[in-house]
Amino acid sequence: MPRTFIDWLRRAPVRNAIDRQNAPTMQVLLAFNGATLALSWLWHLTAHEIPDEWRFVFAMDIVTIVVAFMGVALIRLGRFRVAVKLYLACLVASNFLTYRQLGASDMLMDQATMILILVVSGLVLGRRALWTAFGLVVAILVTGFVTDWRALPAGMAWNRTDLVNAPGLLLSYTVITLVLDRTVDALRRSLAQADARSRALRREVAQRERAQAQLIQSQKREATGRLAAGVAHDFGNLLNVIKGFTTQRDASATLSDAQHARAMEEALEGIEDVADRGIATTRKLLTFNREDELTLEWFDPGAVLQSLRPVLAQLFPPTVRLEIAAEPSPWRIHLDKNEFELMVLNIAANARDAMPEGGHFRIDAATSGEHRFEIRFADDGSGMDATTRDRVFQPFFSTKSPGQGTGLGLSVVHDLVTLAGGTIGLETAPGQGTCVRILLPAKRTTPDLPPSDARQAPSART
């Protein structure tokens, strides 16, 4: 309950930050002052009648009670400074009229109201309001002492009355005001510095947010560039295969009509197969703004490698002899089949580029130990030196001329093999060709393990 009440006090719609912090205290002060003043007079009224000379004070206090509760209502409406100024004006006017009517002597025992005027003026309204309030307090006291002096009986010396306390009282209020002035000034300076630091911090945060937004945009552009380069790389390989199939038109010119038709049918089937792979590649672009996914499944790598023979044959020129030593087997690996096929094409394309004058490309696939399947891609091309071999799996590293390579082929292969829990290595030397050796986890086909068990997994592609 107390916490709820404090939250209610803080919900006053005050714009100024400092005033908003002071609003709960002022609401409590105004309500407390109004309530205690009303209860005090109620106590007096139940005990005895109000003396005639105090009826004026009673009237002034009734006005103060009304203004105090009115001030609470004004703060709840967001009129904080209006409420405080109205309350202080009421206190000043009430005390001025009371001191003028009754004098200062009867009021010296209770100076709480005077001190309250100074404290609220200084802490809530500021230094200027503090010194204005000090001047008004001095005027009230002087007015009261003048009333006392005029009321002196004939022949009584003033220094035998309460007038003797006037200099000391004025000096005390001066000291109180000076202390409040210094305190308010230090507080206001601290608040100003804190506000300046807060604004500077907000500016810094805004700058950091802008910088972060720019970084995100830059990363998006970089990711888009990587994706475009990877897709372009894969499409380049697929288009080379399609181009190879189109050469069947010239190669079958000497064949009979039936043989020519059969050759064209096989070429079109090959082009259709490559086009399907191209469609699968375009899905990378369509899923770029979503979490890309690989469709993992258990499949026979030997059978897939054999099915790629026509495609690989079109990827290589006639000067390269292709050999695939892989047969269907009961062993299964767990990968995205489409990505596996593109991985083979990437390695084969690199081997083709390493043998511009022709050569020999061989694929061997067999089990290697328990639950491991090994695939070896060997060419007798130009090979690599140690520096190139150490960097060959880095994204965008390429030894080819600009426009001829993206540097993503082997990097993507490395990511896919690593994602599958496998390893990849190179055996190469300048002028002695290259052998890419891939080891993948494998399982033997059992009645409980169907050949195809597809599921979704996050992609390693970016």
Automatic annotation (TrEMBL):
Pfam short name (any one): HATPase_c
Keyword Transcription: no
Coiled-coil positions: 184-221
SUPFAM superfamilies per record: ATPase domain of HSP90 chaperone/DNA topoisomerase II/histidine kinase (SSF55874)
Catalytic activity: ATP + protein L-histidine = ADP + protein N-phospho-L-histidine
Entry keyword set: ATP-binding, Coiled coil, Kinase, Membrane, Nucleotide-binding, Phosphoprotein, Transferase, Transmembrane, Transmembrane helix, Two-component regulatory system
Organism the protein comes from: Marilutibacter penaei
Name of the molecule in the record: histidine kinase
PANTHER family: C4-DICARBOXYLATE TRANSPORT SENSOR PROTEIN DCTB, SENSOR HISTIDINE KINASE
Chain ranges of the Histidine kinase domain: 230-444
Database matches in InterPro entries: HATPase_C_sf, HATPase_dom, His_kinase_dom, HisK_dim/P_dom, Sig_transdc_His_kin-like_C
Recorded GO MF terms: ATP binding; phosphorelay sensor kinase activity
EC number: 2.7.13.3
